[in-house]
Design a protein that fits this description.
The protein is mainly β. Helix content is 3%, strand content 44%. It has one helix and 23 strands. It has a ten-stranded antiparallel β-sheet with strand order 10-13-14-15-16-17-18-19-20-23, with no helix packed on it. Strand 21 and strand 22 form a beta hairpin. The longest helix has 15 residues. The protein is elongated and about 145 Å long. The relative contact order is 0.06.
Length: 469
């Protein structure tokens, strides 16, 4: 039999007492028979409902605890005894919620979520922040259980409530074009005013006839332009007295060379187009420009107003013509910066260079035009079949000239350096041989110089011109 000393017996007693003492739990450490619960209260668009009141009730013991959700709509509950629980929630403006029972296991960290619906009569609360609606809080990134409602049927969302009427704040108008400017008079004396009443005959204020607002619908405009061109030319040049002089008995070779020309031209342009009033290229356009000319010529010798000396030394003439008559259609938009390509067919005005040195006419033809690189590049390709010009009025006739012109050009802005625009062009002139006398009976083609006989002309021109600095 082994005998222990007094000190050995003392240690045995201490160890035995320690083994029989229950273990002490570290503060804030979960006990082996508890769990934790994380609740997230949110709306249908995943926005947390801050300040929602949450009640967690144990179905077995009927004990309940009340909590309030934080700014993200989250409630964190440590030390939850295992068991079956029911969650109820309420918040101002939201329907009362009660969940179906759910189980919290021993040692489990349960993460659940409940969805509240807006109460009847309350406006919906969509996300009003910047960007997409927020995501669930970070603690729910590992997954969570959405608790179904205790009711068998889901809650019906409340109908959207319309905001109060603000019709008293403004006056409804049919469209933005018919807004009338108010009368404005600051001083009681005549003068200019910023707002004036429009009239159909007034070209200086808003007018439907000059394209200020649509004539049809919202984007079809009409622009009417009337122009008057008066030319007065008086001169004195050496003039031959011809075979029959105005004054009998004056056989000198040179007669009196005084001449006076007065010509008056009226042009009327009707431009119907679809698109915007400015900047944006039109979708389509129809333009017609008739012209009327009156002219008077007085000379001091015969054989000038007409080759027939019996016509005397004075002439009065009138002519009506069609200077423009074409249709235009935009084929495509080439970029968001209004780069485009269009086609125009009919009698149209065209100048092939900066100053019109090579070709500037109003002739029937087909032209394809547009721009690229935000209008830095502008291009034209055109074909014209020329008409004869009236001798006295310089207006178009409807007789063919038997001359064709084919050309293409390209304008490049900021070429080499900023402010300099270059133009590269190609012209081809096909002038067929013919004999032509003008309205007054004078021979025009072939020219009365050198060998007078009909001849063809085939001319090519390739050029580079510039404008700017």
């Amino acid at each position: 039999m082994q005998v222990f000393g007094p000190w050995t017996a003392l240690w045995i007693c201490v160890i035995t007492a320690a083994a029989q003492t229950p273990p002490q739990r570290i503060p804030r450490q979960q006990s082996p028979h508890s769990a934790s619960l994380v609740l997230w209260v949110h709306a249908a668009d995943n926005v947390g409902i801050a300040g929602a009141l949450i009640t967690v009730e144990n179905e077995t013991t009927r004990q309940n605890r009340r909590y309030q959700a934080d700014a993200e709509g989250v409630v964190r509950i440590p030390d939850v005894p295992p068991g079956r629980y029911v969650v109820t929630s309420e918040a101002p403006g939201w329907n009362h919620y009660r969940s179906q029972p759910f189980t919290v296991a021993d040692g489990e960290m349960k993460v659940v979520a409940v969805t509240l619906a807006a109460a009847v009569g309350e406006p919906s609360k969509p996300w009003r922040g910047v960007g997409p609606p927020p995501m669930p809080p970070a603690e729910l990134s590992g997954g969570y259980q959405e608790l179904p409602r205790a009711q068998s049927a889901p809650a019906v969302p409340a109908p959207a409530v319309l905001p109060p009427s603000d019709s008293h704040l403004y006056v409804r108008t049919p469209d933005r074009w018919e807004i009338e400017m108010p009368e404005w008079r600051r001083y009681n004396r005549p003068g200019e005013y910023p707002y004036t009443t429009r009239h159909w005959w007034d070209p200086f204020n808003r007018n439907k006839l000059k394209g200020d607002y649509p004539i049809i619908g919202q984007r079809t405009f009409f622009n009417f332009t009337a122009a008057s061109n008066t030319l007065l030319d008086g001169r004195r040049l050496p003039v031959a007295s011809d075979v029959s002089t105005v004054r009998p008995g004056t056989p000198e070779f040179f007669g009196r060379g005084g001449e006076l020309l007065v010509t008056q031209t009226f042009r009327f342009t009707g431009d119907l187009f679809h698109g915007d009033t400015s900047y944006r290229p039109v979708d389509w356009r129809i333009r017609v420009t008739p012209a009327v000319n009156l002219n008077y010529l007085h000379t001091q010798e015969t054989g000038i107003v007409n080759i027939d000396v019996r016509r005397g030394a004075t002439r009065v003439d009138a002519k009506a013509s069609l200077q423009e008559a074409f249709v235009e259609k935009k084929l495509a938009d080439l970029s968001p910066n209004y780069d485009f390509i269009s086609v125009r067919a009919g009698i149209q005005q065209f100048s092939s260079d900066f100053r019109g040195f090579l070709f500037v006419e109003e002739q029937p033809g087909v032209r394809v035009f547009g721009n690229l690189k935000s209008n830095r590049l502008e291009y034209n390709a055109a074909y014209f079949y020329l008409l004869e010009k009236d001798t006295n009025s310089f207006l178009n006739t409807f007789d063919p000239r038997h001359q064709q012109v084919l050309l293409a050009n390209l304008y490049i802005q900021d070429f080499f350096w900023k402010g300099y625009t270059a133009q590269f062009s190609y012209h081809f002139n096909k002038d067929d041989a013919d004999v032509h006398y003008d309205t007054n009976g004078f021979l025009v083609r072939p020219a009365k110089v050198g060998l007078v006989q009909p001849h063809n002309i085939r001319a090519h021109y390739i050029g580079w011109t510039g404008d700017g600095h």
